[in-house]
Amino acid sequence: MSTLKALLFDVDGTLADTERDGHRVAFNRAFADCGLNWHWGVSLYGRLLQVSGGKERLRFYIQNWQPEMDSSFETDGLIFELHQAKTRYYLELMTAGLIPLRPGVERLLGEARSAGIRLAVATTTTPENVIALLSATLGEQSFGWFDVIAAGDCVPDKKPAPDIYFLALEKLGLDADECLALEDSDNGVKSSTGAGIKTLVTVNEYTRDQDFTGAAAVLSQLGEPDNGFEVLAGYTGPASYVNLAFLQSLFVRPKSLTGSGVIP
Ligand code: XBP
Ligand code: MG
Question: Does residue 240 contact residue 229 with C-beta atoms inside 8 Å?
Answer without folding.
Answer: yes
